[in-house]
Amino acid sequence: MTSNSKGELPRMLTREERFNGLHERNFEAIRRYALRRAPALADDIVSETFLVAWRRIDDVPDDERPWLFGVARNARLNLERSRRRQQAVVSRLAADPADSTDEADGRRETVAAALSSLSERDRELLLLHAWEGLNRREIAAVVGCSVANVSVRLHRARSRFAAALAVEPRQAHAPFPLINGGAPDVL
Amino acid sequence: MSSNALELLREFDPARTLAALDEHARQAHRDHILEQPFRSSEAVNRRTVRRRFAQVAAVGVAVLVFGVGVAWASGFLSPLGLFENNAEQDGNPPGSVWDQSVVPDTVREISSVDIPKVGAVGFWYGETKEGGWCGALQLPAGGWLGTGNGTLDGGGTVPGCYPTRAAINGAAKTPILVINGLDYQEDDVDARSLGGSFWRIRYGIVDAPGAVKVVDRASGAEAPVHDGLFELAVADPTPTGRTPFHLVALDADGTVVADDCPSCSP
């Protein structure tokens, strides 16, 4: 730690200041994650996540977001387990009235069906990438496995999802983009 | 995976159009967390988080017990958690008419009303196995009215699950509630500290056939009926007084199909 021109050492942030910054930077992302996965439990998930973050503020790493998502994920799993419910992401997707047209409904059902064809673990990795925007290293920190493992599983999940989209029957009223070979994975 | 498939997946992101909470609401959430005792580097035992709290007083002030009690006291239980804890049952024996168990799959948000200076206050509802209903009003920051948390909570019914009026009458030696097609609770929002007003929000059930809206004939405020449920907010300029209130339900032709006070005028 270097001193300034007056020879004074920079002031260390207090715990409250560190938490305030962490909360400000990450609240919306955690809130969206919780609402996407388990809307009926979202408030509990968000509150437990930041309660853990406050109580473990000294342990939060510099790369705080994957750590927070990991805490939120554990909170969600514990809450769902205690409620004996599994919140299916696909049912949320199908029920979300983002667009009420027949074409959009058809596309939504197609996406939901393709997602449901994946294992729960593969679906989780895919959505952490697609919706939360995390890269492989960050996903590995969230789910607690190696980056190499995430790379393999994510590639597999993407391929299976694309394949599932391609085999869904075309809807007469909903032209569907063909899945081609595509560009290499970019993370 | 091609960019088309990824874009398609993102198109149906449930949070795609979700608006960010306003700064005041976010800070309220942060402040609630900071009010909790700090423990350095201790692993949180999540089993203890599910421990039920001991007691809720009539005005909704909880005895603080770590875990669910902390969440209750901070006001940040989930809707399902709130209904499963069912503060309304406290003090009543198991099997009594107030022993209502929420059916989890019925829990949903019915509507929201926009309160100036505060934001959207949502009405969460659920059905019980015993034929009753659960109700609660949620503030934008996630807290619940009627729990005694925060300056915005103006008091009212402690959120939880209730038997129907008919069930209450059936359990009593003589009928005590009027059956008039309306069955509702009230919670209040006090936004005066923010430069707003004091608001009374009535929410609940209209089981009169054909009802499409409810109206407070005293103020003229009205709200639509969704699936037999409503949420009506009325500003009260004199909250310490006796501001007139007369709730009716109307059908599509404007005919009164339920009246909470037939002898009241207007």
Explain what you see.
- The complex is a heterodimer of chains A (187) and B (266).
- Chain A has 8 helices and no strands.
- The model of chain A is unreliable at 168-187 (pLDDT under 50).
- With 187 residues, chain A is mainly alpha-helical.
- Chain A has 2 domains: 12-94, Rna Polymerase Sigma Factor, Chain: A (Orthogonal Bundle); 103-179, Arc Repressor Mutant, subunit A (Orthogonal Bundle).
- Chain A is elongated.
- In chain A, 64% of the residues lie in helices and 0% in strands.
- Chain B contains 6 helices and 12 strands.
- Chain B has helices spanning 3-11, 23-34, 46-49, 68-74, 79-85, 165-171, and strands spanning 108-115, 119-127, 133-138, 153-156, 160-162, 182-190, 198-206, 213-216, 222-224, 229-235, 247-250, 256-259.
- In chain B, strands 1-2-3-5 form a 4-stranded antiparallel beta sheet, covered by helices on one side.
- At the A-B interface, helix 1, helix 2, helix 3, helix 5 and helix 6 of A face helix 1, helix 2, helix 4 and helix 5 of B.
Question: Which class best fits the helix and strand makeup of chain B?
Answer: alpha+beta
Distance between the termini of chain A: 34 Å
Strand fraction of chain A: under 5%
The count of domains of chain A is 2
Total strand segments of chain A? 0
Order of helices and strands of chain B: HHHHHEEEEEHEEEEEEE
- Using only C-alpha atoms, the radius of gyration of chain B works out to 20 Å
For the largest beta-sheet of chain A, the strand count, sense and barrel status come to: none
Average predicted local confidence, pLDDT of chain B: 78
Counted by DSSP, the helix tally of chain A is: 8
CATH fold topology of the largest domain in chain A:
Rna Polymerase Sigma Factor, Chain: A
In terms of quaternary structure, the protein is: heterodimer
| Percent helix range of chain B | 10-25%
Strand arrangement, largest sheet of chain B? 1-2-3-5
* Series of H and E elements of chain A: HHHHHHHH
**Which ranges of chain A are low-confidence, i.e. pLDDT below 50, for 5 or more consecutive residues?**
168-187
